[in-house]
Amino acid sequence: MLVTLLGTGTSHGVPVLGCNCKTCCSTDRRNHRNRCSAYITVNNVHILIDTPPEFRLQALKNKLKQIDLVLLTHQHSDHVCGFDDLRRFNELQQGIIPVYGSPETVIYMQNMFAYIFNGIEEPGGGKPHLHLESITDKLTFKEIDILPIPLVHGNIQVYGYRIGKFAYVTDFNLMPESSIDLLKDLDVLVLGVLRFRPHPTHLNLEQGLDLIQKIKPQQTWLTHISHDFNHEELETSLPEGVRIGYDGLRIEVREQ
Predict the structure, then answer these.
(1) What pLDDT score does 125 carry?
(2) 163 near 146, Cβ under 8 Å?
(3) What is the rounded CA–CA span in Å between residue 206 and residue 118?
(4) Measured on CA atoms in the order 253, 184, 228, 53, is the torsion positive or negative?
(5) Domains of the chain by range and CATH?
(6) 86-108 burial: b if 16+ Cβ within 10 Å, else e
(7) Are 224 and 34 in contact (CB under 8 A)?
(8) CA proximity to 190, closest of 246, 229, 132
(9) What are the strands of the beta sheet with 144-153, ordered from one edge?
(10) How far is it, in rounded angstroms, from Cα 256 to Cα 250?
(11) DSSP per residue over 158-217, as a string?
């Protein structure tokens, strides 16, 4: 399995508009963070997690040519506003792309992108062709088992996802014990950790490190990172097995 972190930034991205802090002014490319998404290739199946505003640019930079399945963590704009750009992959693949998310996310997406799902064909075919469906339990797609991980993000339920020995969980402030149990025996965890200070809907660094101690993955990469974190400065202070993700990072994960 090969995991590519297409974007690792918070909802503002980094640099933040109008900010002159050390991280936002950094020339270290690891401090330049687009909004969050990930691309997973396993058994020649290509899975995209989330479609952020920069998705088109991420796809170009990483030379993406195939998307067999899209998984949505939740409906916030920094995770879905590149949704329309999936239509190019319809053209490349000459087929409909399945999209899955929580029941709540599916309802929001049907409303946010009503022109996609209203059943009306437009001249020129200028909209994506997608099969949007909710999941509440394990999904098996082309013999690959995908397990949604229920999380709480403020006042909404969101999902992380586990595929084999890999899991991707971001944008949450509460992980139920039942979800922690679903994340045992991981090789690689990608975990959303926003900043040093507490936040009402996200984990801060202290909370993230505490959760890592409960889950005990072999390796953890932090994502959904604000400009509070300067890559080089923070990485030297993290415990063993925990590192900061960056846009374009590729992670190899054993499949079983």
Answers:
(1) 66
(2) yes
(3) 45
(4) positive
(5) 2-245 (3.60.15.10)
(6) bbebbeeeeeebbbbbbeebbeb
(7) no
(8) 246
(9) 139-141, 144-153, 156-163, 166-169, 188-192, 219-223, 242-244
(10) 18
(11) EEEEEETTEEEE-S-SB--HHHHHHT-S-SEEEEE--BSS--SSS-BHHHHHHHHHHH--
pTM, rounded to two decimals: 0.97
171-220 tens-digit pLDDT: 999 999 999 999 999 999 999 999 999 999 999 999 999 999 999 999 99
Q: Do 73 and 170 meet the contact criterion of CB atoms below 8 Å apart?
A: yes
AA letter at 160: G
pLDDT digits over 18-54, tens only?
Answer: 999 999 999 999 999 999 999 999 999 999 999 999 9
What is the identity of the amino acid at 14?
V
For 145, counting Cβ atoms within 10 Å of its Cβ (0-12 exposed, 13-18 middle, 19+ buried), the class is exposed
